[in-house]
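Q: Got a minute? One more chain.
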Amino acid sequence: MVPDQNSVTRRRLLTAGAAVSAATIAGCIGGDGNETDGVEQFHFTQEQSREEQFDPVVSNDAYSFQVIQLVFDGLYEYGEDLELQPKLATGEPTVERDGTRYIFELVEGATFHNGDEVTASDVAHSFTAPVEEETENASTYDMIESTEVVDDYQLQVDLGDEPYGPFELATMGVTVVPESVRTDDREEFNRNPVGSGPFEFSELQENEYVEIQRHDDYWDDLEPNLQQVRFVAHDDEAGRVSDIRSGDTDAIAGIPNDDWDVLEGEDNVNLHSTESPTFMYMAFNCNEGPTATPEVRRAIAHSFSMQDFIESNAGNVTSPMYSPIPPVVNEVWEFPEDEYQELLPEYDPDEAESLLDEHAPDDFSPTIITPEGIRAQLAERIATRLDEIGYGADVQVLDFATLVDTYTSGSADDYQMYLLGWTGGPDPDYYLYPLFHESQAGVNQGHYYEGSDGFHDDIAAGRNSADQEERYDLYEPVIREIVEELPALPAFTQDNTMASRDYVQGLQAHPEVTRNPTLVADYTNVSME
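A: Always. Here it is, folded:
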């Protein structure tokens, strides 16, 4: 659920182009001279609005997690790519009992911002709370059967009778929270979190900005160059571009496709880009209504050209997708993308009209719900092409909160199609289980796809195996069925893009959207010079 992503140790709804009206950042001066109480601030303009949930146990929003990842440390964290490295752990875990038991050793002396030491009890709580509290992140951790605190610096995690394939790739990268502080007042913790990261929470003005400041007693050797950081959400693409060009912000995320060439030629502006593990898609209501019929779904896919849309609207910042597995993930797994591309319906308005005439009601005019931005443009393109063959569509551009409440209903009165995005990590499970397994209907998906015999069983079996070849054999038919039956039509994968003023040093785009901006790490330390 951005999705934005993403990735990652949990699912991330990407709302690229979404929604909630954020306050403008007029008056925010960048590194050329903005100071608060004599301290220079780094201003980062986010691509989209946040849910304003900063408790990692609860948060399932990529843009809130861009703040969280600087305030909290993980047991393991991504380095420059999508490979986990020890952070609060001393090294790799000891694996026992045929891959179903993990024993973690914690570094000694790591402390939260309130001075409390990070202990195995805190890590155990971070692993188990998402399931116990029935959060949207439960599926990331529900394979854990039990945890045992051996001592303050050693934790045993048992997975039950079966291994879990993505555990070492993602799950053990859990973001660690202080159990006692969090459980004392969860609502307060969600708005004023206490972590163990290089920055501490400073101020939240909802729907305006979040400020964090350098934690001078950070337990790790890393010391951020930046003293204060302000995150401001700015949904308006033109506004973000104007702000970076004028120097009213130090860096922005999400460079609009049409402005790439403009910013590339701009003096005093640097561009940063990398391919990301994102899956942008249009899902069909398979629960009820005309789109529960596969022929109707195929007709809509025939009615427009996804390739033409991408080339004309997003060629600088996206790449086409032909399955729910992003290309950067497919590079590792080598699913037959060329075959999937051939299976997807090509642009054929005559076939689209014929299928709709036969299988859809005469007055068929589907409702498409979407966030703002590139996917709203895609929705309008589909509506235009359907209108050309005598049907049309009602496009509703919704804010993030309304979109989430609406798409999970599965009601044909609410929609027939919705456009969203997902970000994950280097494993097919991140995309197949939350977005297509029946257990996640109404949680992270609104298409309610019943699937063929064995469809859901194979998705579940894939996550309960540590053998990559076995998992490939389970996942490949699932992916093929999704491409053929189209509960969700693959659209494109987005690049993670940023632009910064030239006095910003050390900024680079990370493939996982929630790691942007990485302000301090073993491989970089952002500064303003």
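A: Residues 42 and 229 are 5 Å apart (CA to CA).
Q: Perfect, thanks.
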